[in-house]
Amino acid sequence: MAEETQKSSPKVVAAKKTVTMDDVKFNEANKTKAILACFGFIGLIMLLIEKDDQFVRYMGAQFTILAAICMVLGFIPFLNIVIYLGEFVLVIIGAIKASKGERFDLPLIKDWALKLINAI
To answer: Residue 78 burial by CB count (10 A; 0-12/13-18/19+): exposed, middle or buried?
Structure first.
């Protein structure tokens, strides 16, 4: 009795490209989106809906994480004013830099932002 063996062809799954800092380039056509991505909740929306422009996604990820951290730390009495003032200053600096086409990296948060972009 001859058994017929079927060779199953391996499934080809397209690997998702990992976004690095080299991929985060400014695109003049999406300047307005990049500026809006600096504002917390709007940044989250830009992170989720923008699929092609990594600059917009990166800015959105950074400022979404910043907003979440500030919301949690904002419950600390007397310190919340300093936290929200610091967030406001960082958002304004980020928006100004985005309008000039410069990437604004928030210390400590930039690595989390790249992980978030790659996870979504």
So the answer is: exposed
Distance CA 107, CA 61 (A): 13
Q: What is the mean pLDDT of each run of 10 residues along the chain (120 residues)?
A: 55 69 84 91 90 90 94 89 94 94 90 90
What letter does residue 38 receive in the DSSP assignment? T
Return the number of other C-beta atoms located less than 10 Å from residue 71's C-beta.
13
Nearest Cα to Cα of residue 65 among 23, 106, 119:
106
- Residues 103, 58 contacting (CB under 8 angstroms): yes
- Strand runs labelled E in 58-114: none
